[in-house]
Amino acid sequence: MNKSLTFSISSLVEASTGTSQKFSFQGPVDFEGIKITSDISGQIDVMRIEGGLNVIITDLTLEIKLNCEKCLIPSIQKILIPKTDRQFYFVPPGDIGDINDLFLVNNKDLTIDVSEPIRQEIILHLPSIPVCSKSCKGLCAHCGKNRNFEKCSCKDAT
Question: What's the rounded Cα separation, in Å, for the pair 36 and 43?
Answer without folding.
Answer: 19
